Amino acid sequence: MGVHVEIMDLVAQMKASEEAFVLATVVRTVSVTAAKAGAKAIIRPDGSIVAGWIGGGCARGAVLKAAREALIDGEPRMVSVQPENLLAELGVVAGESRDGVRFASNMCPSKGTMDIFVEPVLPHPSLVILGASPVALSLAAQARQLGYHVTLAAPASDLAAEPDADVVVDGLKPGDLNKAVRFVVVSTQGKGDEAALKSAIEIDAAYHAFVGSKRKMVALRDKLIAAGLDAAGIDSVKAPAGLDLGAITPEEIAMSILAEITITRRRGQRAAANTGS
Length: 277
Description:
Strand order of the largest sheet: 3-2-1-7-4-6-5
Structural class: alpha/beta
Radius of gyration: 24 Å
Number of helices: 8
Number of strands: 13
Largest sheet: 7 strands, mixed
Strand content: 15-25%
Shape: elongated
């Protein structure tokens, strides 16, 4: 009981610190197995087991493989480790999946069966907003409702009130960010456009966008290249930001940007799932 509590305390700590990990839980055992139902382990992306126990080498390889895949696509998995004769009776081979269960062979002398639920716990997707425009503030508020970890970076003098964000940075350099998938939006509305774009391009992200016209971005591109920025990085910035929904108000524009980010995010997850299978 004490060990279980310690593991769940560590799970809470790692979630609070926005760390990616897998919680593996033994849900069923048959015959002799090293770990019993209810046993848990926390697995980091590098494959190391931080805490807990789910058995030895008989199950470890299959669970770690499933953990790596789960961290890529964000989907939980059930792994059933069984001796070869039981797999043959089921008509499956090691590595095959059926009805959501991935089967693996138990080559240990114990010849027991273990079913392990592999659950990925991923950081909230990170939305980094540079600027304090009405669109920026609305984007921050809407994104938090959708579960994003929002960092808003803008000069404090530009903010009339405390924005609805997880982290507020004074200036246009957001500093250290968590390791989640990131999306970056520049919405400075003429106040520090160049500095904000330079900062945004330096951030490793799945999506970079500028709330402004294509013509304005072209003019800024020349200035940024003259300042020494890489043309490819500049050209990766989507301008104008968001889907073409005919949006007019700041709230509508923010919604169109979140819709575009959602498409980018989910498409990336589907691609990861396909390459991992």
